[in-house]
Structure formats: C-alpha cells, structure tokens
Amino acid sequence: MNPSNERMRLITALGVLATALSVGGCERPPIDSKQTGYRGTGMAVLINPRTDAVIAEANQVPAALPAASPDGPKAKDVYQNVQVLTDLSVGQFTRLMVSMTQWVAPPDQSCNYCHGAEMASDAKYTKVVARRMLQMTRNINTGWKSHVAATGVTCYTCHRGNVVPQYVWFKSPATPPSGLMSTSMVLPVKSDRYTPQTSLGNRSLFIDPYEAYLLENRSLRINGTTALPAGRTSSSIQETTSAYALMTHISTALGVDCEYCHNMDAPADWSRSTPKRVTAWYGLAMVRRLNNDYLAPLATVFPAHRLGVLGDTAKVNCATCHQGLFKPLYGVSMAKDYPELY
Hints:
mainly alpha; Photosynthetic Reaction Center, subunit C, domain 2; 2 domains; two-stranded antiparallel ribbon; 11 helices; 2% strand
C-alpha cells in the first residue's frame, strides 16, 4: 500500500473525528437570536428555549402586598428605635416589614429572624444588617438610576427568599500578591487559582477577579486602540487573564455574549459599542461602591460563621442581581410597587 495514501486516509479519519467531536459539543437547535447591534455585525443575543424555560421559572416575581397609605402617624413616632424608615407611615412601615419577611427571612422564623422578644432591641446582628441593607437599597434606587433606571430594586432582587443571596463572593486565599500583577510574562499555573468556576462560564480563568475590580478600582483597560502599544503600558498575562475572567463573569451573569456590549470588530472602541456598555460601566461602578460603603464595613457586625476564610463579608457581583438575565427578573419592576424603598 502506498504510504502517502495511507497517511491521507489517517488524516481524513482524524478530521472526521474532530468534526464529529466539535459538532457534538455544540448546542442542538433550535436556537433563537435577537439582534442587539448594527446590521451585518453579528451582534446578537442567542436564546436557548430549553434553558430559557428553567431560568424563567427561577425569576418569577411575587405578588405585591396591597399598597399602604402614607397618611397617618409616622412609624418613628409609634415604634421605638426606628432609624432609617423615619419618613414612613405606620401602614407603610408594617407593609414593608411583612414584605421583607417574605423576601428574606426563613418561613419558620419570620419576624423573629431579626427581632427578639424586645422588638426595639438591636441585640440580633440580623437587624443591624437589615437596617444597613435598607439604606443600601434606597441608595441604589435614588442614586444609581444610571444603572437601574426606573426599574429599581427591592430586597427580593438579590435574596429571592434566601437569608443570604445565592450569588455572592468572598476574598480568596488564592488572590495573587501585588507583585504578581507585574509586566512579567510568566503565567503562574496553580490549580487552586485557575480551577474552572461556574460564575466564570466554567473556564479555567483566575478564580477571583472580583477583588481587583469590584472592591479595588484596578483598570480594566488592557486592550489597545492602536496597532502598536505606543504611549500605553503593556499588560501582563496575569492582568489580561484576570480582566478576561471578570468579562466572562459579566457575560455569564447576564446570559449574553460579548457582543451585547461590544462590537467585536473593535471591542475597545466606545463609539462602536452598544449603549448597554455605558449601562454596564455604571453597573461596575455601582457594585464597587456598594461593596466598599455598605457590605465590607459589616465585617465587625457579622458573626464568624457568616464571614469568609479571610474574615471578610459576602459581597455582590453582577450575578447577585442578574442571575442569568440581562435584566434582573426580566426587567419587571417590583420597586414601583414599593415607594417605601425610595
């Protein structure tokens, strides 16, 4: 047999096998798509009807309680130790408290999750935390319309009936020391730092991109806008990997591809990006501010079992609210039914 022919048959067989494996790894049709960018650029959101049904079931909005009148005595004049909701009437105050037990507290504990026998007491850490979270929610609804617009948020947006939201993050012991984020081209390969994570699309990326960008304010600008890096500091492989990990997290958290915000023909060019990129930019700024102003300082309030291995509190990222959707709860506004949270 001609060795050349045998070699060609082997190459052909391997090609067929590779094609079969590649096709086998793709999602089976039908896959729907929705155009999000300019025509002809391939900027679209892909929608899988099979997984979409599962996500839809997990994002049902609970019915709002009947509205309460703002008239009548203020809660602060009737109840003791009201520090945040001082502008609410007794009716509004009671309505919000009942709603919060449905959104956050365990069914078997209800009001007792935050309150003891003395309702006005701050003895339970959960009450102190809840008070701070109410301040945070109001701050989001009034101060971050650049991201949440008129939709707003409620406690349910993140908690979904859980005392701790399902999607939070803690500092990781695998976080590299500051010297590691240098211009060195050596990529440190350690399994604990690059283990595939669901929040990172199951890719083997640096497992903790959150501290650098969602607690600290490290620049994400690693992609040059010119052919040569003139006037620009070169990014290391570590910085690039970390930035890509955060971008992958955003993509996974919102259930979209990069094209949702970027024109991949020129991903760094703001003028060719979609308006959603601006919304996302404000979202990153908002998350960073919430983590620093509201969540991280609570480390002295939470008991040890609520803290991470490094003694820090649970903090938020994009998945905390979005949970697989480009608009949390499909864009349904619960906040409009709760003026108490403004």
